[in-house]
Design brief:
alpha+beta; single chain; 6-stranded antiparallel sheet
């Protein structure tokens, strides 16, 4: 599942992958700003950190056991989503889209324009 999520993240306009924390933790960025952190653990340990609006983050945590406060992140603005097959891929894709869009909205207008072309 981590490969599926990685491919989805990297299909985003301007997305790049880096490994600043070692070979098991991929950081996916747009315009040098992180929107996903993918822990490529062994099956049950696989998880992805995603930026999230604080109100939505709380709701997701209440609704889904697989969604937890961001591991090693600002827990108000980041969620950790366990990639344990308990959530449909479409739900996780929507969370990735939300994270990417939050980051892009904070970028300078000229950078946003290059991403929308």
């Amino acid at each position: 599942m981590t490969e599926t999520m990685m491919n989805y993240c990297l299909a985003k306009k301007g997305a790049v992958k880096e490994y600043p924390f070692g070979p098991d933790t991929a950081v996916i960025k747009v315009a040098d700003k992180m929107f996903a952190l993918l822990f490529e653990g062994n099956g049950e340990d696989s998880r992805i950190n995603l930026k999230c609006d604080p109100m939505i983050a709380e709701n997701l945590r209440e609704q889904h056991e697989a969604v937890k406060p961001g591991y090693h992140m600002n827990k108000k603005h980041w969620n950790t989503v366990m990639l344990d097959d308990s959530l449909p891929n479409e739900d996780i894709y929507a969370m990735i889209d939300h994270s990417y869009n939050l980051v892009v909205q904070k970028l300078p207008k000229r950078v946003q324009e290059t991403l929308s072309e």
